[in-house]
């Protein structure tokens, strides 16, 4: 589909929203948890925004979305070589172990990095069209979530070869994906809203994500953490999500109930708080962008 037809489709979707939902007032975006209803009701606009984000990522690239697989595979091979051959760390199937942690981390960190400036970057669109503003950060997260799904789809045969029972763990993997998505979407919405008033958060976030990566068991397991530092990692909100992915892909659901018991309320709390903060700030967006 050409860029021109994409733009026409997006404008048609916007116009449909303007006529149907502003004048008839069929959907009320006054409760922060209504974002699921808003996203579903305006799914055509949302899908076009997601498509726009994905095209922007790989515009002019020869390999396109193949980089979704190439980059984490090369990283996993290099890191597993350093950790197992150079540092002599005992990690079974290290490259898959790292992939199971890096793919979800990359989705999370990529979403936060890109969403932070998403409201100012789409200022013209927000000023020209009446649309639910929450669709902007959510579309960024969903674009990165699409890449996560593509990466898992491509690498899944490797996990199945090593662990055939991984096929039976698909329900657990889907639960991990949904909870991780809701957590990331809420946090992303919060950060995008705060950035409009406090631009320094963009620089702070880059530094925070660097520290956060090494405090998250992406390249190592929780068993390797010394007991005196275990509390620090226990309060890392990304730890249960990474562990859930590994539980589904490598460990046949080991400790999944405990992990779900942490991830579920965490996702609801952070997701709900994130959309609440976004809702409270969005009325001032047009004045500040």
Question: Topology of this structure?
Answer:
Blueprint: H1 3-22, H2 35-41, H3 43-57, H4 67-86, H5 94-115, H6 118-121, H7 123-128, H8 135-162, H9 170-197, H10 201-214, H11 230-234, H12 239-249, H13 256-281, H14 285-288
Can you walk through the features of this model?
Residues 15-32 have low confidence and may be disordered. By secondary structure, the chain is an all-alpha fold. Helix 5 (94-115) runs parallel beside helix 9 (170-197) and helix 9 (170-197) packs antiparallel against helix 12. Helix content is 73%, strand content 0%. It starts with a helix and ends with a helix. The protein has 14 helices and no strands.
Cα distance, first to last residue?
31 Å
Count of separate DSSP helical elements: 14
H/E element sequence = HHHHHHHHHHHHHH
* Strand residue content: under 5%
Structural class of the helix and strand makeup?
mainly alpha
Q: Per the principal axes of the C-alpha atoms, what is the gross shape?
A: globular
What's the β-strand tally?
Answer: 0
The major sheet is characterized as: none
- The amount of helix comes to over 70%
Q: What is the CA-based Rg, rounded?
A: 20 Å
Low-confidence stretches: 15-32
- In quaternary terms, these chains amount to single chain
Give the count of structural domains: 1
Mean pLDDT: 83
């Amino acid at each position: 589909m050409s860029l021109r037809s994409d733009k026409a489709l997006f404008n048609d979707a916007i116009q449909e929203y303007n006529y149907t939902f502003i004048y008839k007032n069929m959907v009320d975006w006054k409760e922060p948890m209504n974002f699921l209803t808003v996203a579903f009701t305006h799914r055509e606009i949302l899908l076009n925004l997601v498509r726009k984000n994905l095209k922007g990522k790989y515009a002019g690239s020869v390999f396109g979305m193949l980089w979704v697989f190439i980059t984490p595979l090369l990283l996993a091979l290099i890191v597993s070589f350093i950790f197992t051959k150079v540092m002599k760390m005992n990690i079974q199937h290290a490259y898959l172990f790292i992939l199971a942690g890096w793919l979800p981390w990359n989705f999370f960190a990529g979403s936060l990095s890109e969403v932070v400036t998403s409201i100012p970057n789409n200022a013209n669109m927000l000023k020209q069209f009446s649309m639910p503003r929450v669709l902007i950060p959510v579309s960024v997260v969903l674009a990165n979530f699409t890449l996560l799904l593509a990466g898992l789809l491509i690498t899944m045969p490797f996990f199945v070869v090593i662990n055939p029972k991984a096929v039976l763990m698909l329900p657990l993997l889907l639960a991990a994906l949904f909870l991780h998505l809701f957590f990331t979407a809420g946090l992303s919405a919060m950060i995008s809203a705060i950035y409009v008033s406090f631009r320094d958060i963009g620089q702070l976030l880059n530094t925070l994500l660097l520290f956060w990566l090494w405090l998250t068991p992406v390249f190592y397991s929780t068993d390797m953490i010394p007991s005196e530092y275990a509390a620090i990692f226990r309060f890392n909100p990304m730890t249960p999500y990474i562990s859930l992915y590994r539980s589904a892909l490598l460990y046949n659901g080991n400790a999944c109930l405990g992990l779900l018991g942490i991830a579920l309320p965490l996702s609801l709390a952070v997701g709900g708080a994130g959309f609440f903060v976004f809702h409270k700030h969005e009325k001032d967006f047009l004045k500040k962008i």
